[in-house]
Design brief:
Layout: H1 4-14, H2 21-25, H3 31-54, H4 78-91, H5 97-125, H6 129-133, H7 137-145, H8 147-164, H9 171-208, H10 213-248, H11 252-282, H12 285-297, H13 299-307, H14 310-318, H15 320-341, H16 349-378, H17 395-399, H18 405-413, H19 415-428, H20 438-468, H21 473-503
Length: 512
C-alpha cells in the first residue's frame, strides 16, 4: 500500500498532464480520502488515456464496472473479479412486468403527447410560405427529428448504462461523462445538420432537375441552426433526467429515452419552422450564410472540449458511422414524406407522421437500452449469452428464455392502446385532414403494430451482433433503429393512405 506522499508522487509521475480543475478542487479534502481518491481516479484515467492513444481502447470499456475492465488490476487475484461480477449481478435492477410497465407508461404517454404536438405543429406550418415554396424542408423534417435518436437517445442510453453499472457514483467520473458527451453531441449535431441539408438539396434536386442556390443556403442555415440549438437544449434536459432518475431510484433505461423523445420532436420542429420562415422572410443569402458560418465555427471548440474527456474521445473519432448512416436513412423517409405531402389527396399524412415515427423509435430505444445494460452486466465484449447464440428467429425476441423478452412483450402491448389515445387526442383537437373511421383506425393500427414488431426484432438481432463484434450498442444501435423507425413509419403510413384512397375511404378535408 502506497503512503500518502508516495501516492501523490505516483499521480504526477504516471500522469503529468492529468491534474485539472476537478482534481485541484479535491485537494482540500482530508488527507486520508485524498490518497485513496487520487490513486483510484488517476490510475483509471491514465489507463484510459493510454489505451486510447495506443489504439487498444474499445467503446465498451468506459461503461463497464471497474472490476470488468480488461487490463485494470490484472495482477490481483481472480476472486476479486468473481466478487465484482457477483456484486454487479446483485446490483442489476430487478423488475416485475407490472413495475416495468408502470415505469415506462408515464414517460411513454408524455413522449406520445410530444409527438402529437409535433404533428399538430407540422400540420400548421406546412401552409407557411417557406414550406410551400421550399418543399425540400419536408426532407429535413425526419432527418432533424431523427437527431433525438442519433444523439439524445444515444446519450440517454450511454448515461443510463453508466448509472446502472456505477460509473456515475463518483462526482469526477460523473462530470467527465456529462461534459464530454455534451460536447461530443454538439459536434455531431452541427455536422449532421449540415449533411442533412446537403442530402435534402440533392434529393430535392435530382427528381425535379432544378437547383436554386438561395434555397440551398437557406436549407443549410436552417438545418445547422436547428440541430445546434435543439441539441443543446435537449442535452441539458437529458442530463437532468438521468441525474434525477438516479436520485429517485428509478431505472433510467425505462424513462430516459422516452423523455428525450417527448421534448425532442416538438422543440426541433418548432425551431426549424421559426428559423426557416424567418430566414425566408429576410430572403438575403448573406444573412443565411452568416448564420450557418457562425454555428459551424463553434465546432472546433466543442471538438477540443470533447477530446479532453476519455469517455467521449474515442467516440469523437469512431462514432460517426451510425449517426451519418442514420441521417441518410431518415432522409429517404423525408423524401417519401415530401412526395406524399405534395399529393393533395394524401394531405392527412402530415399530422400522423411524427406520431407513428416517434412512438416506434421510443419503444425500440427502450428495448435497445435495456438489452445493452444487460450485456454490460453479464457478458464481456465479443461474447453473447447462450440464449442469443445461433441463428436469429423472431420468436426469440418475444418468447425466448432471455431476460428481455418480457420487456419486448410489454412494449408491443403498449402500441395499440397508446396509438388509440393519441389518435383520439388529434381528433379532439380537430387537427389533421382525415376522419377517424373504423377502416382508417384498423389500417393505421395495423401499420403501427407491424412497424414496432419489426423494430423490436431488428433491435434484438442488432444489439447482440454489435456486442459480439466489440462495439458498444449504447453508442451504435439506437441511431440505426430510430432511423429505421422513421423510414418504416413513413413508408407504412404512405402505403396505408394510398390503400385507404384506393378502397374509397377518402376524407381529405377534415381540419381545413
Amino acid at each position: 500500500m502506497l503512503s500518502q506522499s508516495s501516492s501523490w508522487q505516483y499521480v504526477f509521475s504516471h500522469s503529468p498532464s492529468f491534474p485539472n480543475t476537478w482534481m485541484l478542487a479535491f485537494l482540500f479534502l482530508s488527507p486520508g480520502s485524498l490518497s485513496v481518491f487520487a490513486v483510484t481516479v488517476c490510475t483509471s484515467s491514465s489507463e484510459l488515456l493510454s489505451d486510447a492513444g495506443d489504439g487498444h481502447y474499445v467503446e465498451t470499456e468506459p461503461m463497464l464496472p471497474d472490476g470488468r475492465l480488461s487490463g485494470e488490476e490484472a495482477d490481483e487475484e481472480e476472486e476479486s473479479e468473481e466478487e465484482g461480477q457477483q456484486q454487479a449481478t446483485r446490483n442489476m435492477p430487478k423488475e416485475s412486468p407490472l413495475a416495468m410497465a408502470l415505469q415506462i407508461l408515464v414517460p411513454f404517454l408524455l413522449a406520445g403527447f410530444g409527438t402529437v404536438s409535433a404533428g399538430v405543429v407540422l400540420d400548421i406550418v406546412q401552409h407557411w410560405e417557406a414550406f410551400k415554396n421550399i418543399t425540400e424542408i419536408f426532407i429535413l423534417v425526419p432527418a432533424l427529428l431523427g437527431l433525438k435518436g442519433n444523439l439524445e437517445m444515444t446519450l440517454a442510453s450511454r448515461l443510463s448504462t453508466a448509472v446502472n453499472v456505477g460509473k456515475m457514483d463518483s462526482p469526477i467520473e460523473k462530470w467527465n461523462l456529462i461534459i464530454g458527451n455534451l460536447a461530443l453531441k454538439q459536434v455531431q449535431a452541427t455536422v449532421i445538420g449540415f449533411l442533412a441539408a446537403v442530402a435534402a438539396v440533392v434529393l430535392g434536386w435530382i427528381p425535379e432537375g432544378k437547383f436554386q442556390i438561395s434555397h440551398a443556403v437557406l436549407l443549410c442555415s436552417s438545418s445547422v441552426a436547428t440541430a445546434f440549438i435543439a441539441s443543446l437544449l435537449q442535452g441539458f434536459i437529458m442530463v437532468g433526467v438521468i441525474v434525477g432518475s438516479k436520485k429517485t431510484g428509478i431505472n433510467p433505461d425505462n424513462v430516459a429515452t422516452p423523455i428525450a423523445a417527448s421534448f425532442g420532436d416538438l422543440i426541433t420542429l418548432a425551431i426549424l419552422a421559426w428559423i426557416s420562415q424567418g430566414l425566408y422572410n429576410y430572403s438575403h443569402p448573406y444573412v443565411s450564410s452568416l448564420v450557418c458560418a457562425f454555428f459551424m465555427c463553434l465546432t472546433p471548440l466543442w471538438m477540443v472540449i470533447s477530446s479532453k474527456h476519455p469517455a467521449s474521445r474515442q467516440l469523437l473519432y469512431s462514432g460517426w458511422e451510425p449517426v451519418i448512416t442514420a441521417m441518410f436513412i431518415s432522409s429517404i423517409g423525408g423524401l417519401i414524406l415530401d412526395k406524399t405531402v405534395s399529393d393533395p389527396n394524401l394531405a392527412g399524412i402530415v399530422v400522423y407522421t411524427p406520431v407513428i415515427n416517434g412512438i416506434g423509435g421510443n419503444l425500440v430505444a427502450i428495448q435497445s437500452s435495456r438489452i445493452s445494460t444487460y450485456l454490460h452486466f453479464h457478458s464481456t465484449p465479443g461474447e453473447v449469452p447462450d440464449e442469443a447464440k445461433g441463428c436469429y428467429y423472431p420468436c426469440r425476441t418475444f418468447c425466448g428464455t432471455g431476460a428481455n423478452h418480457r420487456s419486448a412483450q410489454v412494449l408491443l402491448l403498449l402500441v395499440i392502446p397508446g396509438h388509440l389515445i393519441f389518435l383520439y387526442t388529434i381528433d379532439l383537437m380537430e387537427r389533421g385532414h382525415t376522419s377517424l373511421t373504423p377502416v382508417f383506425m384498423v389500417v393505421y393500427l395495423a401499420a403501427a403494430l407491424f412497424q414496432v414488431f419489426l423494430l423490436l426484432c431488428i433491435a434484438d438481432w442488432m444489439v447482440h451482433s454489435m456486442w459480439k463484434s466489440g462495439k458498444d450498442p449504447d453508442s451504435f444501435s439506437i441511431p440505426y433503429l430510430t432511423a429505421l423507425g422513421d423510414l418504416l413509419g413513413t413508408a407504412l403510413l404512405a402505403l396505408s393512405f394510398h390503400f385507404l384512397w384506393v378502397i374509397g375511404d377518402q376524407d381529405s378535408d377534415v381540419g381545413d
